[in-house]
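We were asked to recover a plausible sequence for a given structure. The inputs and outputs are reproduced exactly as logged, with field labels preserved.

PROBLEM: sequence recovery
POSITIONS: 320
GIVEN STRUCTURE:
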């Protein structure tokens, strides 16, 4: 009982630092832009932010899992474009029903993720190089599938991005909650953290890490395809150039959320806060009419500062 109480007392500062600390940072940004930008606190602005972060949030969930196993996936933006292209071609060219087209779209994303995982694990190659190759393959395939033209689907797919319980932002929040539960409350999640901490120790304990790592890459591809469905539904069109820079935004959000690039540590909820911080930062700077180059400089500084603070926080935590 004493040990349990001790663990709980240790867990409280971690919760405050990781979750409430991120929430406080987000609140400070909201207050700053609320005072500096006259039209920031409007329903239209917050609705726009919510619509824009849905796909990035879903991809960030998958990216969190990949980074925790000490990997990286640079192909998510291109995989998103390819998955959306498959959805568009199925509905426009082959006249498939919406459920059938969505199923093939999700299968395309998962297949890309599986391919990444198989090559990384089978040939023991750095995931950075493998997913960089998939970035080019998927982007080229998206252009081949669509003929390098935006395919307008129309309202038949737009119903997915409708209001109410089907709102993409609500769907993204549900995926965040499920992702956090999987990471913190399941054996699969514990194995993911263990692999990122010390893969050799996991192997020596009699657990084969390869199926778990393969599952993580496949999950990332699947979630990227889910984001593609939402993005395509919002635009009511499949764009082969969609997802440009998505990989950088997702990685930045996950890193701001405190997930270690070296593996073994991360939180899906914190990654969600990272997505919101970047979105609010970009929206606030736009409202203040800050130029695009300056916005990128400021956003980059925030990312670097977040990494430095995260390293400092985790250095002093064991001492406490």
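RECOVERED SEQUENCE:
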């Amino acid at each position: 009982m004493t040990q349990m109480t001790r663990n709980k007392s240790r867990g409280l500062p971690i919760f405050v630092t990781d979750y409430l600390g991120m929430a406080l940072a987000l609140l400070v940004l909201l207050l700053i832009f609320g005072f500096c930008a006259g039209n920031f606190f409007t329903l239209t602005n917050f609705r726009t932010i919510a619509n824009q972060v849905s796909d990035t949030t879903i991809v960030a969930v998958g990216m969190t899992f990949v980074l925790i196993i000490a990997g990286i996936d640079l192909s998510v933006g291109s995989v998103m474009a390819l998955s959306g292209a498959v959805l568009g071609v199925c509905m426009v060219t082959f006249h498939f029903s919406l459920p059938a087209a969505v199923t093939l779209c999700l299968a395309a994303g998962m297949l890309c993720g599986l391919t990444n995982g198989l090559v990384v694990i089978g040939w023991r190659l750095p995931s950075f190089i493998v997913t960089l190759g998939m970035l080019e393959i998927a982007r080229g395939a998206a252009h081949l599938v669509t003929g390098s033209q935006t395919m307008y689907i129309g309202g038949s797919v737009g119903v997915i991005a409708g209001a109410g319980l089907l709102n993409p932002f609500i769907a993204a929040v549900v995926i965040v909650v499920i992702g956090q539960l999987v990471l913190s409350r399941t054996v699969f999640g514990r194995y993911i953290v263990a692999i990122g901490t010390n893969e050799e120790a996991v192997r020596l304990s009699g657990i084969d890490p390869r199926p778990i790592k393969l599952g993580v890459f496949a999950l990332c591809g699947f979630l990227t395809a889910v984001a593609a469905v939402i993005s395509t539904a919002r635009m009511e069109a499949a764009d082969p150039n969609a997802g440009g820079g998505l990989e950088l935004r997702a990685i930045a959000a996950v890193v701001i959320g405190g997930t270690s690039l070296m593996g073994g540590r991360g939180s899906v909820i914190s990654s969600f806060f990272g997505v919101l911080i970047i979105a609010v930062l970009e929206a606030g700077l736009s409202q203040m009419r800050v130029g695009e180059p300056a916005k990128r400089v400021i956003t980059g500084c925030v990312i670097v500062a977040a990494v430095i603070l995260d390293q400092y926080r985790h250095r002093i935590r064991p001492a406490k």
